[in-house]
Amino acid sequence: MPNMTLRDIANALDLSVSTVSKALRDSYEIGYETKKRVMNYARANHYLPNRMAKSLKEGKSGSIGVVVCSIDNSFVSRMLDGIDGACTAAGYDIIIMQSKESLAQEKSCLKQLEARGVEGILISPAAETINLDHIVGLRAIGMPTVLFDRISERFDSYQVGVDNREGAFLATQHLIANGYMRIAMLNIGPDIHFASLRGKGYQDALRANHIPYREEYVRLCNPSSRDTLKDCVSTNIRSLLELPTPPEALFTTTDQLSTHSLSVMHQLGYQIPQDIALIGFSNTELADILTPPLSTVYQPAFEIGRKAAEKLIALIVGKEEPEEYETVMLPVQLDIRESSRTRIEPKR
Amino acid sequence: MPNMTLRDIANALDLSVSTVSKALRDSYEIGYETKKRVMNYARANHYLPNRMAKSLKEGKSGSIGVVVCSIDNSFVSRMLDGIDGACTAAGYDIIIMQSKESLAQEKSCLKQLEARGVEGILISPAAETINLDHIVGLRAIGMPTVLFDRISERFDSYQVGVDNREGAFLATQHLIANGYMRIAMLNIGPDIHFASLRGKGYQDALRANHIPYREEYVRLCNPSSRDTLKDCVSTNIRSLLELPTPPEALFTTTDQLSTHSLSVMHQLGYQIPQDIALIGFSNTELADILTPPLSTVYQPAFEIGRKAAEKLIALIVGKEEPEEYETVMLPVQLDIRESSRTRIEPKR
DNA sequence: CTGTTAGCGCATTCAC
DNA sequence: GTGAATGCGCTAACAG
């Protein structure tokens, strides 16, 4: 037995469809008695308004689209949790799509969401996405859009994320404060915007402390494929540690880099932080259970998602002036744990 | 400039709406020239069919609903990835909702999905959900439904998951084979079906090896709140290790139990597996980077999601006989790592 | 080959 | 107070 419609109720109660419609929406035009009858009948028969029809009629789908690189990523899923919270509270449901870091897929996701009639889009661009024209284009067709997490100052619109440069600066600064001078960085890239900001923060901190920047202490891995990423980390860690003057500390700029690095160092028998200190970026769940517990730059993932969704909803509802674009930078926070403990001069 | 409609194209090209509609769908009734004109015009003007209208017309939304306990869980998100893969491939998009382990919210999710007009539902029931009547009820209204991950033999329908009893049996058996006799289990529950199956597997393995079952070696923690879970693990681990005859090995039946246990043991200064061996359930990503690498019963999360989605889609498309319900049990696999290494008699 | 008509379920004028 | 009529954008049956 498929769902009942307004007409079914109307027929059963010997009323017209429009009367029933109004009664259910508690319109002032309908008499108390009639309302009562309709409401009761509807409840008793589990009437559910057909949202497709309602959507079509009102030109609103009641849903918003979310594009992320991958669902299967703890940082992303925490942001999604935040998004879901805000959207559910506001009565929107979310359609999540994955770009898998591919620009082509990202475009395809956007197209689908548009066709689906979402009322707004939240997007964290793919790593491959250098040019944001297709996202800017969304505005042209009147689609409210908020960028989150992977934000860009080249995108003049609503954005929610953290200050990546600042986070990296703090991390590096912390290592320096703890007595480390020779600090290496393992980053992803090139051409990934937030990653280069983190790189910049690292350099700025060195400069601020009059520590020379050493080319050979900075390594990049491309995140395109997991296997190669792991290999790349392994190669670079080995190479760093075998340098004539190896670094005393390492700043790894993403979760995967951090965990793989730790794993390689364990394999090679290095002690952390005695042999080399370590600080990562964004990891929270894992940080505590690693050995040693990993110091990290904490990013408020849930909050990023929530704030971005709230912003988007405000845009949709139209309470916001479309003119004043703004970038919301949530504060990062240093979670200091054992992996970056104050340096002790190695015994000879 | 909002989206253009079939009528816009029709007017522009001086054709009727239905001709345009047919042309775009490459109907045999339309002449080559006309098709060409329409197609070109549509592409040039970025025509996107309105899916809400299409859905209403066809009575199909092209979307399926997914209910999970929480997005923010690596195991769940890997299953979602599998679901997304199958659905995207089949042209469905997914609407994900979270029950947060609450029965009331689970029911609310189901209602919303129904109202939304999803064509089918994939659900992994909340921990609170003992009685599955509301899920069985979905069938009554003709909603194709597939249970995944948290399956139940009390539910006579389509289900995809793993054999939890078997997995626990294998894990325990493995510990025994490696020389451990006094084996404790830290489980969640009571009243969580898959958890009690894991408990059963543990007991079965002991019995099969003529090892007496010891009440004091079996501990339960309730997963309702994270904080209390962590505390509960801590309390139980301490208490286990302080027993007159402490266990030589521990089987932790969920990811959170495993990681918290590891963390507590580290804090207390226990060596793994020298002081106590450890084997967990379902973790994959983490297992390798923990210290020591954690042996686990591997569950093919992605596959579970994929298979469940494929099943559901087959049901929706109607290729399946609705009579022959079946439970698909995917094989678990033991991933042996260092935490459960062969026992070495401790030196005195 | 192309156009006309009808209707999916709902909300909203506008009459009565 | 209530109901008839209209249309959201699309597809499909049926005419031409």
Automatic annotation (TrEMBL), chains A, B:
SUPFAM superfamilies: lambda repressor-like DNA-binding domains, Periplasmic binding protein-like I. The keyword DNA-binding applies. Signal peptide: none annotated. InterPro entries: HTH_LacI, LacI/GalR-like_sensor, Lambda_DNA-bd_dom_sf, Peripla_BP_I. PROSITE patterns: HTH_LACI_2 (PS50932). Residues 4-58 form the HTH lacI-type domain. Keywords: DNA-binding, Transcription, Transcription regulation. One of its GO terms (molecular function) is transcription cis-regulatory region binding. The keyword NAD does not apply. This is LacI family transcriptional regulator.
